[in-house]
Amino acid sequence: MLVSALVTPFRKDGEGPALDRFARLVGFALDHGCDQVLVAGPMGEGDALDDGEWESLLQEAVSAARPHQILAAPGNGRLPQIVARARLALQLGVRDLLVADAPGHGASSMALRERWHGALARALPEARLWPLAAPGQSGAELLPDDLARLHDEHANVVGVVDASGRLARLARVRALCGADFTILCGDDLMLRDALVDPAIRADGGCVAACNLAPGAVRRLLDEARGGKPARARELHEALLPLLGLGVVTVEETLLVHGEALAVPQRARGAVPVKAALALLGLGSCVSRAPLGPLGPNGEARVRAALVAAHRAHPELLAPMAEYFELDLARRLAPAGAPVRGAELAGSGR
Questions:
Q1: Phi and psi for 267 in degrees, rounded to 5?
Q2: 314: helix, coil or strand?
Q3: Residue 133: half-sphere exposure toward Cβ, Cα within 13 Å
Q4: What is the pLDDT of residues 214-246, one digit of tens each?
Q5: What pLDDT shows up at residue 335?
Q6: Per the domain annotation, does 343 fall within a domain?
Q7: If DSSP codes are grouped into helix, strand and coil, which group holds residue 157?
Q8: Do both 54 and 198 map to the same domain?
């Protein structure tokens, strides 16, 4: 199962989602091997959308795809707001819902199970719920033990999207939740290992790189799940520059009291992926506050990743170029000298 962790393109003024571009990204992902698209997830800046924007984005997705091809994230607000959004999704025929751990409260794993995920499972019995394990983002963690108990108590908790970045956690989820529980790896760089590790055997992934090269990621998944680890490794290595765009760390120059300082700047999630799309010619890279644009070295790092992927394996971005009628030779022409601290393939995670 392959899910594209879609970005949400905004209009240049930032006042609302660019729905036409969003619909084309949905179509591109589904036409090139993805089983589902994630709408308004962390990569889609879902928490920055008001209720009207969230509804319009979901309705656009339903217009561009079938309801079973959509995994919707109802956000991280109060439980009544999440339930209201979830019920709207259900009215539109969307049953798969991604539920993140409640951020900013420091809730224990037991409290998350009983008063958060469990409460949503009871309120939404007709939904298919997917807890999102991303402790680095939420500051909280539903542990595998409590996840297993949640699954035992609520049949509508059908799987997990695990973006913890810890293979040991994934292995424990598999051991406790069983073979019928769906594990989707939410860490791009860890995808191949999660698929081929015999203690995990992930069922697929929720992948940010599918915004750029869904067909190649699909082939990676199929080779790994088909018992061809060597071929999966080759595809993984070819995709590394794109898989590494989930986190970009470079040094940017900052003037402090008249002194030029080299300060590490770390951008993650939607920001570098949107920068990549913009560099390729797919609209602006506007993000909602507190997210902001990359600095010049960050943008150079993203460009270097695109150039490295395209030069070594032009077949990776060729489907995108054809689908969106892009001139990659022009878009990826040389743009200056190498950048300090701008290493390729996922450095600085």
A1: -115, 140
A2: coil
A3: 27
A4: 999 999 999 999 999 999 999 999 999 999 999
A5: 55
A6: no
A7: strand
A8: yes
- Domain count along the chain: 2
Q: What distance lies between CA 260 and its chain's CA centroid? A: 35
Residues written for the chain: 349
What span, in angstroms and rounded, lies between the C-alpha atoms of 344 and 301? 7
User: Coil, helix or strand for 132?
Assistant: strand
**In CATH, what number is assigned to the domain containing residue 166?**
3.20.20.70
User: Strands, E, within the chain: which ranges?
Assistant: 2-5, 36-39, 70-72, 96-100, 128-133, 159-162, 182-185, 204-207, 247-256, 259-268
Structure token pair of residue 74: 């109802």
Q: Does one domain contain both 191 and 323?
A: no
Question: What pLDDT does 331 receive?
Answer: 92
Q: Is 68 inside any structural domain?
A: yes
State how beta strands 204-207 and 247-256 pair.
unpaired
Looking at the fold, whether 43 and 70 belong to one and the same domain comes out as yes
87-128 tens-digit pLDDT: 999 999 999 999 999 877 789 999 999 999 999 999 999 999
Task: Verify that 29 and 100 share a domain, yes or no.
Answer: yes
pTM greater than 0.85: yes
Q: In the predicted model, is pLDDT for residue 285 greater than 80? A: yes
Domain holding 198, by residue range, is: 2-229
193 and 94 within one domain: yes
CA distances from 143 to 97, 104, 147, 172 (A): 19, 17, 6, 9
| pLDDT tops 60 at residue 344 | no
DSSP string covering 28-87: HHHHTT-SEEEESSGGGTGGG--HHHHHHHHHHHHHHS-GGGEEE---SS-HHHHHHHHH
Annotate 81-93 with b (16+ C-beta within 10 A) or e (fewer).
Answer: ebbebbebbbebe
Q: Rounded mean pLDDT of 35-43?
A: 97
Q: How far apart are the C-alpha atoms of 284 and 12, rounded to whole Å?
A: 6
**Average pLDDT score, the chain:** 93
Provide mean pLDDT across the span 252-281: 94
Q: Mind listing the pLDDT tens digit for each residue in 135-158?
A: 988 888 999 999 999 999 999 999
